[in-house]
Amino acid sequence: MTTIIAHRGASKLAPENTMVAFKLAYQHGAEGIETDVQLTKDNVPILMHDEKINRTTNGEGFIKDLTYKQLQQYDAGKWFHRKFEGSMVPTLETFLKWIKDKPLYLNIELKNNKIDYKHLESIVYEMVTHFKLQDHTILSSFNPNSIKRMKPFQKTMDIAFLTKKGSKNILDATKQLGASSLHMNHKYITENLVKQSHAKNLSVRAYTVNKANHMMTCFQTGCDGIFTDLPHKGMQYRELYHYYETFL
Ligand code: G3P
Ligand code: CA
Fold first, then answer.
1. Taking the CB of the first residue and of the last residue of the chain, which one, N or C, has fewer CB atoms within 10 A?
2. How large is the average pLDDT for residues 123-146?
């Protein structure tokens, strides 16, 4: 069955990549949580999608130029709604501590395709291992060199290559990089692609799927997971999809 993974938490209902968005996703029945990791100036892994803090906080500048202490001064919730004022940018450590005892999959996307943060792969790997979360963790990246660097981690974790576009040889390219999964824009995922991927022992997951008809199409392809900003809808539509399968 296709796993429902909350994209940056329940990010249509709460400020993305904050603890409140992750907690809401869990309450809404998500089976997994996706988040993005970047590194501060003093090498603290923190959760944010953009390289700059401008869009999702009341501050400005690159994360790489701020220490964690400096980053803590900024509000990561008020931009979304004043109700969320006081939300902070979470560290990866805070997130892992919270998720540790929950029956959730996690997908940590290394945001190193624009800034190739030094040692990001090993920093994240060691932290996930410290919390003994290897079994339900997927590490992903759009950066092919980072995927190559993570090849040794595949023994204990799922490593996913992220791609914006489908191409003819994408499955072989993914295998060659040493990944065990492929994460693609949902537009490019077909039943045939999923079959071919599974034949090559690759899992396929689709991002970012928010509309009912797109979710239904993904479920029909048999893909392994979808990333959605609305996890409660994902759970609801998946149930409906299987109801249709049986009764229509
Ligand atoms: O990991 C799937 C998806 O999150 C990739 O795109 O830009 O939302 O990080 P983006
Ligand atoms: Ca992401």
1. C
2. 98
